[in-house]
From TrEMBL:
Protein source organism: Malaciobacter halophilus
Annotated ranges, domain ABC transporter: 8-238
InterPro entries registered for this protein in UniProt: AAA+_ATPase, ABC_transporter-like_ATP-bd, ABC_transpr_CbiO/EcfA_su, P-loop_NTPase
Keyword Nucleotide-binding appears in the UniProt entry: yes
GO CC annotations on file: membrane
PANTHER family: ABC TRANSPORTER I FAMILY MEMBER 17
Keywords on record: ATP-binding, Nucleotide-binding, Transport
Protein name: Tungsten ABC transporter ATP-binding protein
GO biological process, one term: transmembrane transport
Alphabetical list of CDD domains matching this protein: ABC_cobalt_CbiO_domain1
Pfam families in the record: ABC_tran
An annotated Gene Ontology molecular function: ATP binding
Transmembrane regions: none
Length: 337
């Protein structure tokens, strides 16, 4: 069975902007040493959630525990290890070197500064000569990576990246991904990332959280299906899995071809007799800490999805890792983003 190592625990969180509720999360546990991808359409509350996780803002209502400690009692030196790269980061009107060194200077931690700046530049795929450039002599993708380097040099315990790939090309996005993996590997950094490049985020994160209109679409492992989509003769979108099996989404005529579908695991049924079921193989069965039910993960043509079942039902149906199962997905409950 998998064990989870909770870093954040959000309890009954509500956050308001101008009396409008923009975030409403009953319970959410976020694990340590993971890269958590936060998915959701514009205005769904991703940046708001990040502002709470970085303790830049305080939730209007509710409690956030960090390492089991109520955030209201967190010491400043613990908060200092939580670093955020906001959407549209701001560079100081100084050299690249001074931008990257800024945080360390503030902390009076300037030993081997030059070498540390150069190492960090390398981590984000920029040559050492970049350190002498002015902030104004950078392309969008380079500026984004300099802003990331300015956070990485702090070796944060938690790094929150709000849209780190916005306005960058595929090459820069790849370099950002490599820098993220390095931070996790070298310093055991826990990362939270949002991106509208869903494909990039899907390939970068270990865990997924999805928000829609300020609410969690699912508390736990979220099921996401990404483009490419095909169309059937009625114009509905069809997911064709690598194994050739197909899943038609009714009433998806007007959905865009780069849409993502979020599926609640409660709307996915295993071994239930139905005409449109598809074959899958169970890869793991475990019990999430925050859930009474067991989570059954299974794979269909290379795509991993999950469903939730009571333990007794798993035993009754004799479901085991490696078992083949018939999966029925209630596509009418799909949430499109
Ligand atoms: N300072 C603010 N004042 C008023 N409303 C705000 C403020 N910041 C955010 N909001 C509102 O809160 C909601 C959530 O915004 P948020 O920026 O968290 O969404 P998001 O998912 O990050 O969106 P995007 O993908 O566009 O960045 C939106 O309706 C937004 O208009």
């Amino acid at each position: 069975m998998d064990t989870v190592n909770p870093l954040y625990e959000l309890r009954n969180i509500e956050h308001f902007h101008d009396e409008k509720k923009v975030l409403d999360i009953d319970k959410l546990i976020l694990e340590q040493s993971q890269i958590t991808g936060v998915f959701g359409p514009n205005g769904s509350g991703k940046s708001t959630l990040f502002s709470l996780l970085s303790f830049v803002n305080k939730a209007t209502i509710g409690t956030i525990l960090f390492n089991g400690i109520d955030s209201k009692k967190l010491e400043q030196k613990i908060k200092r290890d939580i670093v955020i790269l906001p959407q549209n980061p701001y560079l100081l009107k100084r050299s690249v070197f001074e931008n990257i060194a800024y945080g360390l200077r503030l902390r009076n931690d300037t030993k081997d500064l030059r070498q540390r700046v150069e190492t960090t530049l390398k981590q984000v795929g920029l040559e050492s000569s970049f350190k002498n450039r002015k902030w104004s002599q950078l392309s969008g993708g380079e500026a984004q990576r300099v802003a990331l380097a300015a956070r990485l040099i702090l070796k944060p315990k938690v790094l929150i990246l709000d849209e780190p790939t916005s306005g960058v090309d595929t090459n820069s996005a790849q370099l950002i991904k490599e820098a993220i993996f390095l931070a996790k590997q070298k310093w055991d950094t826990t990362l939270f990332i949002s991106s509208h490049d869903h494909n990039w985020l899907n390939h970068t994160c270990d865990k997924k959280v999805a928000l829609f209109q300020g609410k969690l679409v699912e508390n736990g492992s979220i099921n996401l299906l990404f483009a490419p989509w095909k169309k059937d003769i009625n114009g509905n979108l069809v997911k064709e899995f690598l194994c050739g099996q197909k899943l038609v989404f009714e009433d998806s005529l007007y959905k865009k071809r780069d849409s993502i579908v979020m599926l609640n695991s409660e709307d996915i049924y295993l071994n239930k007799k139905s005409q449109n079921s598809i074959k899958a193989v169970i890869t793991s069965i475990h019990k999430p800490t925050c859930d009474e039910q067991m989570q059954v993960e299974f794979i269909i043509g290379g795509i991993t999805l999950n469903s939730k079942l009571p333990k007794e039902e798993i035993e009754k149906k004799n479901l085991l890792p490696g078992s083949e199962v018939d999966v029925t997905i209630d596509t009418s409950k799909a949430c499109w983003i």
